[in-house]
Amino acid sequence: MISMGSRRQEAVDDGEQSLIGPPSATDGDVLDRDASTPGFVYVLAFFSALGGFLFGYDTGVVSGAMLLLKEEMNLSALWQELLVSSTVGAAALSALSGGFLNGWFGRRVCILLASFIFSIGGFILSVAPGKVVLLVGRITVGLGIGIASMTVPVYIAEVSPPHKRGQLVTINSLFITGGQFVASVIDGAFSYMSHDGWRYMLGLSVVPAVLQFVGFLFLPESPRWLLQKGRSQEARQALSRMRGGRSVDEEYDSIRTSIEEEEKEEGAGGVVIWRILSNGPTRRALIVGCGLQMFQQLSGINTVMYYSATILQMAGVRDVKQAIWLAAATSATNFVFTLVGVWLVERVGRRKLTLGSLIGTGLSLTVLAVGFLLSAQYSPPTTLHPVDPQNSTCRLYGFCEFCMLDPNCGFCYRENNSRVFDSSCVPVDQASTDQAAWGSCSNQTEASKSPIWAYNYCPTSYSWVVLLGLILYLASFAPGMGTMPWTVNSEIYPLWARSTGNACSAGVNWIFNVLVSLTFLHVAQYLTYYGAFFMYTGLVVLGLFFVQGCLPETKGLQLEDVEDLFTGPLCSCGASSATHSGQVQYTRVNGSNRLTSDNDDSDVE
Questions:
Q1: pLDDT tens figures, 65-120
Q2: Is the pLDDT of residue 40 over 80?
Q3: Is the pTM above the cut of 0.70?
Q4: Cα 53 to Cα 18: distance, rounded to the nearest angstrom
Q5: Which DSSP string do the residues of 10-45 spell out, in sequence order?
Q6: Rounded to an integer, what is the distance from CA 313 to the centroid of its chain?
Q7: C-alpha closest to that of 486 among 252, 206, 153, 204
């Protein structure tokens, strides 16, 4: 009898063969490597990934829109934080509820629901008369983002052939970064409008939302969900359509057998999350899935994406529009290197790609930290200490670095041939505009000497180091940690737990998204900017140990076989490791990852 480990190893080997050479005549298995992937699967992936595009667009567009909104609607700092974080918070809640919706109504209906919510939210944002209605629109959009973020990867994974699954699921991440890039370009283009430019920025999301809704009216449901609900005839028809009319008997029978075995072992009743936690393999899969999503956010990605223009300004980029366009360049880097991830995922594998990404991310965060450290060490001193009628702490700061870290202060200076002189730290009236602050600055020096008002940045010659660090960060993060948490989570759960498992992991992603995005400015204030990025570097190192010890390789396996990777007592992760409480051991066999058992006599290297 062929062991499960041997069957898995053959599947992996076959997957590698399909990428490096022509398939053999005996490869007529469920992977269908004897024929090209039907074009209809790419159509499904495209319309599904529009949800990812909307995810990226709506989370990315607010950074540029906020520059116009805070002036036009006179938004306080609290309202600015609410408009940014409300979308993320709503997404966390709807992602957690998305597991129930997916299990009850199906993947197709949930994607239709998400695109409908996106359309309504985009319309509200485009016509909002005030900040309260604007907040309602941002919350509405967040509800759509949460449902889409956990449904789209599941749907793509379930309709894809195994040898293309990783690539097609990663397309969703490509569309997320594409949405962020398009949003940054739209922000730059409409930043020149003197009035209502933010309405176009926020409202244009309606276009892809309507396109996705119309497209999914004509697309099929996931065959796996249909079989789970007993709609076998519809499932066979949908699967046949997705495989281009070829024979689907083996794949269909494999899915049906897996579902029947799950029903016998687990029963039809019970709360799904409790079944997940009480089932060892599925519980381990959930830990891996949630851990990947947690470390994706703790790596600081949304600090970089939400605050990229702010970070560049902190690094010394003086012009606001220049900072916006440089932020668009970093978004372009994110998009381009996500394409690299799409190309590598089925060649290198999920595990190696994630490990390499974390190493590069840690090194680039170190470059960012060093850039801010150099700026701090060579921060220009304050040479003038005028009498402050407000008795603020600004006049006590001896260097620009400390003045910049205080949101109530700004740096006023003159410059000649890149040499800073006649500088002072002066208070900022929080109810005033930058022009009033400029007047305050002018009062501190001789007006004829053209003083420069620097709020939230210090004059420095090390801006290029920070920009280099940002580009290296996104080039390292995008192919692996930007894409693999979503790809792996779409694969590692059995069918009965797939919706709930993805809902939990997506919820973890959004919760840590809120945590990181809402604490960055405060962390930077207390630890300094270089201290904040050194902290993220340390968190990336923890993530590297987690992935090294816990993440198995899923490349080339059918979804029904992936769950066996987490079956105790032996579970392959490609590295020697063990967790005694869960009786999980990770072994490398003959140079490849595989599951072994007590009855397996294979040699272990």
A1: 776 787 678 776 667 777 877 888 888 888 888 778 888 888 999 999 999 999 99
A2: yes
A3: no
A4: 30
A5: HHHHHHHHHHHSPPPTT--STT-TTSPPPHHHHHHH
A6: 23
A7: 153
